[in-house]
């Protein structure tokens, strides 16, 4: 037995594997705290807001996420791909980051102009008064601008695996958000106040991220036209995908906000709070696996081994989540309050859709971290086909019908991402 242990310790990959396991445990334990803080914040909001007000909160947060996705338009993918090539050079890394941030500011201006009338219209249609709609829109602006630089500023520390600094900053933001929510929700249970309470701590966190970046980046660099051209090449290739995903990714909310009612909208938002279970694995993979996969050499066996290992982790995570939902639906719904206690079957359906979506999105992000993206025409065609098919099969104006559609759509997306990912990996050069 001792001989076997000694042999394992002497293996050439033992130290690297041990360090990686330690890193996962550190990241995982911190992420548990972060997601617990976020989950408590979300549950507090669900239980304290009236159903009609929570419908507006759900809609506002969905619009914020869509607006951020439009503004990114693939810029973060381009910055990650280009940064993975020069991550050891502080000056070149600074130029890539500065160019990405400059592009995002320009995209943000365009996105905000287009989105403003849509946001106001949807809020008014879901029983918001004019004053409330305007206040909600104004509260979205600080949160929107905070989200502009957040994902870009995290790329460099992730590439250098400075995970502890990132997580300390995320903890500060999460605790600050929870404190502000607790201080305001009992006195001002309004959507615009809660959105402000979420956005202000993120603005503080971004200022700290800039300080963290100075350890690895020469931050006084100017945007570079050549780098901008390279990023825009990637943006051009995946922008149609981003636009379509921005709409189809939250199509459940969009359809219910236009054709459904505020009760169903609030219900889907409340059930979506359990998506925090997904966010834990999304953050782990985005922090540990995507930057490492981006740095791998273009060799088939190495890429395939990492990709399959990542899939195994994703399936195990999804299995654990679904088992929890199957065994404890009543307990989970109790957390949301009496208004949502009858949604056990809807809970199972939405979590199944989220699990399939988690695997599909992470697989696409993994191969996308190396600069490879699905043909946008194919993606749009597939998604339009699923919408048309679902229209004739399910009633998409009801909560149950739209959840069936969501599961079907995520499955099609997963299949397409798998076919594309394996084709890219197989086309890589083979080690002799």
UniProtKB/TrEMBL annotation:
Keywords from the named record: Cell membrane, Membrane, Transmembrane, Transmembrane helix
Predominant location category: membrane
Coiled-coil region: none
A single Gene Ontology CC term: plasma membrane
Membrane-traversing stretches: 20-46, 107-124, 131-148, 178-200, 238-259, 265-290, 302-327, 347-366, 373-394, 406-428
Membrane topology: Multi-pass membrane protein
Record's subcellular location: Cell membrane
Name of the protein in its database record: Membrane protein involved in the export of O-antigen and teichoic acid
């Amino acid at each position: 037995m001792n001989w076997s242990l000694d042999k394992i310790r002497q293996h050439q990959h033992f130290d690297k594997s041990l360090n990686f396991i330690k890193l996962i445990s550190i990241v995982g334990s911190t992420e548990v705290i972060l997601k617990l803080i976020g989950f408590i914040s979300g549950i507090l909001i669900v239980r304290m807001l009236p159903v009609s007000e929570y419908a507006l909160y759900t809609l506002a947060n969905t619009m914020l996420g869509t607006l951020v996705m439009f503004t990114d338009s693939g810029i973060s993918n381009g910055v990650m791909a280009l940064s993975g090539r020069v991550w050891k050079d502080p000056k070149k890394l600074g130029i890539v980051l500065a160019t990405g941030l400059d592009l995002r500011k320009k995209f943000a201006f365009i996105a905000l102009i287009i989105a403003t009338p849509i946001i106001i219209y949807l809020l008014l249609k879901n029983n918001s008064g004019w004053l409330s709609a305007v206040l909600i829109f104004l509260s979205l602006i600080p949160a929107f601008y905070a989200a502009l630089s957040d994902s870009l500023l995290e790329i460099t520390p992730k590439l250098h695996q400075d995970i502890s600094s990132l997580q300390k900053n995320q903890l500060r933001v999460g605790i600050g958000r929870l404190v502000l929510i607790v201080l305001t929700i009992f006195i001002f249970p309004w959507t615009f106040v809660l959105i402000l309470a979420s956005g202000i701590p993120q603005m503080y966190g971004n200022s700290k991220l800039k300080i963290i970046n100075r350890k690895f980046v020469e931050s006084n660099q100017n945007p570079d036209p050549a780098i901008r051209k390279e990023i825009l090449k990637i943006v051009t290739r995946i922008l149609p995908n981003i636009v379509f995903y921005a709409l189809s990714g939250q199509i459940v909310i969009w359809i219910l906000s236009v054709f459904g009612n505020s009760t169903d909208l609030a219900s889907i938002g409340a059930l979506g709070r359990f998506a925090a279970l997904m966010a834990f694995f999304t953050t782990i993979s985005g922090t540990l696996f995507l930057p490492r996969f981006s740095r791998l050499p273009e060799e088939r066996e190495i890429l395939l081994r990492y990709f399959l290992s990542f899939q195994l982790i994703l399936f195990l995570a999804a299995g654990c989540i679904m088992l929890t939902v199957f065994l404890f639906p009543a307990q989970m719904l109790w957390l949301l309050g009496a208004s949502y206690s009858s949604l056990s079957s809807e809970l199972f359906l939405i979590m199944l859709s989220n699990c399939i979506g988690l695997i599909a999105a992470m697989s696409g992000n993994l191969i996308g971290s190396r600069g490879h993206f699905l043909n946008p025409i194919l993606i749009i065609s597939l998604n339009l086909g699923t919408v048309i098919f679902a229209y004739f099969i399910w009633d998409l104006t009801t909560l149950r019908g739209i959840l069936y559609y969501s599961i079907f759509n995520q499955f099609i997306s997963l299949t397409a991402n798998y076919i594309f990912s394996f084709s890219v990996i197989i086309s890589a050069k083979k080690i002799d």
